[in-house]
Design goal:
This protein is α+β, with helices and mostly antiparallel strands. The protein has a domain at 130-261: Sandwich (Immunoglobulin-like), CATH 2.60.40.10. It contains two helices and 14 strands. The strands form three sheets. Strands 1, 6, 7, 8, 11 and 12 form a six-stranded mixed β-sheet that branches. The longest helix is centred in the N-terminal third of the chain and has 38 residues, at 50-87. The protein is rod-shaped and about 180 Å long.
Length: 267
């Protein structure tokens, strides 16, 4: 059904003020505003396509929804693939066995020259401390033996109670020269050795040595004032046999020596 055409409005009356005025150059020009107004009033607008606009909008919404759903599915699938790849690493193929490595010894760079032994002799023992005792002071020498010193010389007594003396004033001992004496008493189970050392103020060690090289170092006693002589004593165990006696100074120099003598029987 075609809508009724609107009634054409009456032509507007020209405004005498806008009427073209004749001029010397030709006839007056028509009023363009009035012409355009009449032409616009002759146009009949058609009906609006509202239904087509609605259909086009619904189609655009469906396409947008489909695209978003597809993108969501792709994102989920990509995440699943990433998780599977992360949890199942690919193991490389084992390499072919090669030759066994050869151990190379480290290079040793000497930092100092090796020490040179100039002698096979054992090191010199340290000097033996000398104990200073008062005149007549009895010293427990162990295993029932006692030793003491007086101005006359050495005194000792054994487990049997029998006393012995070795004088330094009877002329049998020359205290002007380094020397050593040796007395011993005992049996197969062991012996007690004692004696005098004299002729030196630098006594360092008295040592017993048997034929097999076994040694025993004695204890040293002196009176106050370093009179130049003193007493030594030591115990030896079974199997020591005959021993020799040697006196050394504090630097290890041999001052006097006695040859090997039997353990039993005084010298």
């Amino acid at each position: 059904m075609t809508p009724a055409r609107p009634t054409t409005p009456p032509d507007p009356q020209p405004d005498p003020r806008r009427a073209p005025q004749p001029g010397p150059q030709g006839p007056p020009r028509p009023d363009l505003h009035a012409v355009f107004a009449r032409a616009a009033s002759d146009v009949t607008p058609g009906p609006l396509p509202l239904e087509a606009v609605r259909r086009a909008g619904r189609a655009r919404r469906r396409r947008r929804t489909t695209v978003l759903s597809t993108l969501s599915v792709l994102a989920v699938a990509t995440s699943v693939v990433a998780v599977v790849v992360t949890l199942t690493p690919v193991r490389p193929s084992p390499a072919a066995p090669g030759p066994a490595p050869v151990a190379v010894p480290p290079t040793v760079v000497p930092t100092s020259a090796p020490s040179v032994r100039t002698s096979d002799a054992p090191p010199t023992p340290d000097p033996t401390p000398i104990r200073t005792v008062a005149s007549g002071e009895r010293v427990n020498a162990g295993k029932g033996w006692q030793v003491w010193l007086t101005a006359e010389g050495k005194h000792w007594v054994g487990p049997d109670g029998y006393e012995n003396t070795r004088s330094v004033t009877d002329g049998n001992v020359d205290v002007a020269e380094p020397g050593v004496s040796h007395q011993s008493e005992g049996g197969p189970k062991g012996a007690f050795h004692s004696g005098l050392y004299y002729g030196t103020r630098a006594a360092g060690r008295v040592e017993l040595r048997n034929a097999q090289g076994r040694t025993a170092v004695a204890t040293l006693l002196e009176l106050p004032g370093r009179p130049g002589w003193g007493v030594w004593y030591v115990h030896t165990g079974p199997g020591m046999g005959e021993v020799g006696t040697a006196l050394y100074d504090r630097s290890g120099k041999l001052l006097s020596e006695l040859p090997l003598i039997p353990r039993s029987g005084p010298s």
